[in-house]
Amino acid sequence: MHLEGVRRRTAAGETAEAAASLDVAKANQKTAEINLGYCQLRASISGKIGDRLVDEGNFVTGGPSGAFNSTLLSTIVAVDPVSAVFDMDENTLLRLQQAIRDGKLESPGENVIPVEVGLPIHKQDYPLKGTVQFINNQVDSKTGTIVIKADLPNPKPETGGRVLTPGMFARIRIPIGRPRTALMVPEAALGSDQGSRYLFVVNAENKAMRLSAEVGLLDGDLREIVAVKAAGESASRSLKADEQVVVRGIQRVRSGIEVAAKAADQ
Predict the structure, then answer these.
(1) Do 91 and 154 reside in the same domain of the chain?
(2) How confident is the model at residue 109 (pLDDT cuts 50, 70, 90)?
(3) What does the DSSP 8-state code read for residue 251?
(4) Is-contact 197 191, C-beta < 8 A?
(5) Residues 214, 156: contact at Cβ < 8 Å?
(6) How far apart are the first and last CA of the chain?
(7) Tell me, what CATH number does 90's domain have?
(8) 62 inside domain
(9) Looking at the structure, do residues 17 and 94 belong to the same domain, yes or no?
(10) Residue 12 parent element (H or E)
(11) Is residue 15 part of a domain?
């Protein structure tokens, strides 16, 4: 009877020991799974990965991105959408804010400010459309500019690669206000004299007449003419749509000389 009790206690001890060994094995398995998980790095964004910067067997050190002792393994860039970062000078920013306060422009809502983007292959066009997603909260005192970021859709076409590649340089413009009618002339038709702009028109007697010009926005190679004034006139006036403007060779034109008007290419 005494021997039977000893056997039972021995069996119970062995059972407890086996159970403890099992718990240790499970803990070791969990640790191995965690360590294995560290062998796979998952990016928080989707995109395109660049070349590897370390090879198998190299020693690496972990840590926050950009830390002195951390090892950079590779880089990933977002491809759709692509962010376009550009600067706006503070003078333009002030003029826009004043125009909104004066009621000349509508106050844009959040994430609805459109941008238009063109690449060198597009020449003077801006076919790519996007939306401003971020405007910095301060002007850089060193450059006098404020950082603006816009997102542009960049889908994969059926053939070929995406239009935009991160790191590209592009031309960006922001349409200001609603479209409006304006009288435009080629930028080449305008001269400059001590900071003032001028142009020549041909009057009814086929003689050149110089007009001081108040100019507006530039759209491609066309400049908006806000108002003109001839010498001796007290008030400015609008340039008439039927007035003939000299668009070539204005360096050789003088007020009062007779010219042979010839229609230029549109």
Answers:
(1) yes
(2) low
(3) G
(4) yes
(5) no
(6) 119
(7) 2.40.30.170
(8) no
(9) no
(10) helix 2-37
(11) yes
Helix, strand, coil distribution of the chain in percent, nearest 5: 20, 30, 50
CATH assignment at residue 227: 2.40.420.20
Phi/psi region, residue 63 (left: phi>0; alpha: psi -120 to 50; beta: rest), is left
pLDDT value at 165 more than 60: yes
Structure tokens given for 235: 């008030």
Residue 247 contacts residue 201 (beta carbons within 8 Å): no
Token pair recorded at residue 178: 């609603």
Which residues constitute the domain of residue 136?
Answer: 82-173
Residues 26 and 104 in one domain: no
Q: Is residue 61 part of a domain?
A: no
Residue (of 249, 227, 248) closest to 236 by Cα position: 227
Number of domains into which the chain is organized: 3
Distance CA 66, CA 60 (A): 14
144 near 73, Cβ under 8 Å?
no
Query: Structure tokens of 139?
Result: 């002007």
pLDDT digit string, tens, across residues 229-241? 888 777 888 888 8
Instruction: Tell me the two tokens of residue 140.
Output: 């850089």
Residue among 170, 164, 169, 172 nearest 77 (CA): 164
224: pLDDT strictly greater than 70: yes
Residue 76 in domain? no
Q: Residue 161 CB: number of other CB atoms within 10 A?
A: 9
What are residue 61's phi and psi, to 5 degrees? -125, 130
Q: How many CB atoms within 10 Å of residue 93? A: 16
Identify the domain boundary among 152, 173, 194. Answer: 173
